[in-house]
Write a structure and sequence with these properties.
CATH class: Mainly Alpha
Helix content: 55-70%
Number of helices: 5
Structural class: alpha+beta
Shape: elongated
CATH superfamily: Winged helix-like DNA-binding domain superfamily/Winged helix DNA-binding domain
Number of domains: 1
Strand order of the largest sheet: 1-2
CATH architecture: Orthogonal Bundle
CATH topology: Arc Repressor Mutant, subunit A
């Protein structure tokens, strides 16, 4: 049996989410954004001691996985947790990690 025959869309989705969450900065960003009642519209680079270009790459990974969304409101970008996808991620990880 080929690997592609046993890997489901669920497996692929979990792997994509796990990859997006695989760095401590991304975990911090998700904690920060998920603790907000509304979108974060500050400069996240003020919150983290990393280069803006590095932060941008981390945000891109989270956005590509569908965990966050952003809107440009010049001069700032407003970031929010994609609540629907975050809820799905929690369900998928809970199912994976349950005893």
């Amino acid at each position: 049996m080929a690997t592609k025959d046993i890997l489901t869309d669920r497996h692929k989705k979990i792997a994509k989410l796990a990859k997006a969450m695989s760095h401590p900065v991304r975990i911090y960003v998700m904690e920060l954004l998920s603790s907000q009642a509304c979108c974060y519209s500050g400069d996240l680079s003020d919150e983290l001691p990393i280069a803006k270009s590095t932060l941008s790459q981390h945000l891109k990974e989270l956005k590509n996985a569908g965990l966050i969304q952003g809107e440009i409101e010049t001069p700032k970008v407003k970031y929010c947790v994609n609540k629907e996808n975050w809820k799905e991620a929690k369900i998928l990880f809970n199912e994976l990690l349950k005893d």
